[in-house]
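explain this chain.
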Amino acid sequence: MYKAIIVDDQPSNVEILKIYLQDYFPSIHIAGEANSIESAIKSCYKHNPDILFLDIKLTDDDSFMLLDSIDIGEKEVVMVRSYETYGAKAVNHDITGYMVKPIDVKNLQLMVNKIIRNIEKKRSLDVGYKKPEDEPKSYLDILAIPTTSKIEMILAESIVYIEADGRYTIFHLHNGESKIASRNLGEYKTALNPKHFFRIHRRYIVNLSMIVNINKSAGNYCKMINDLRLPIARRRLDELLRRLKIK
């Protein structure tokens, strides 16, 4: 089974999508529904879905705000839109794909088949040894960065921040160098120790020891040791302050 959440502020759209999924993909379980950013965040934390079907335009905001507020991680994200103008913005986010309303059944089938293949591929990589619940998780001190021509090794402590760039990841190092990896940001988030690294935004993970200050008056941002200012998503600020034991 694959758990899914539908986020749409139009009940009729939710019902149509549910009917299509139930008729053509009984292996997909609709674990939750949401009609706002706030309810969507709660539903994501409660159900930890494999798939998110997100209407781009909601009453209180757009679903890109949701992507800035949660850790997408290994989730498959499908944006559903009514207007072509949102296409470019959707492409710039790390999502599986997008569909145009009204939903075409054939396009939905193609999209869901792609999603299932992606999920099964990820699950196949996890088959085998499973750690006991009481065994502490180990994190990497040295990361292997695969590029198109070679694999480079970098020390986790040398990272200032990590930046998502579509399906690629850019590592910005203390010595001023940058390394581009042919994997997405979510894969590296799970490998890095959360005591030292924190995702402040959909696009950025920062090394907490490299933060010089946090500015809350002129827009929420972190000033890093290399003098760069990185934005903090509004819904990530409180958690960051708690992580730093400020709140």
User: Anything to note?
Assistant: Residues 128-136 have pLDDT under 50 and may be disordered.
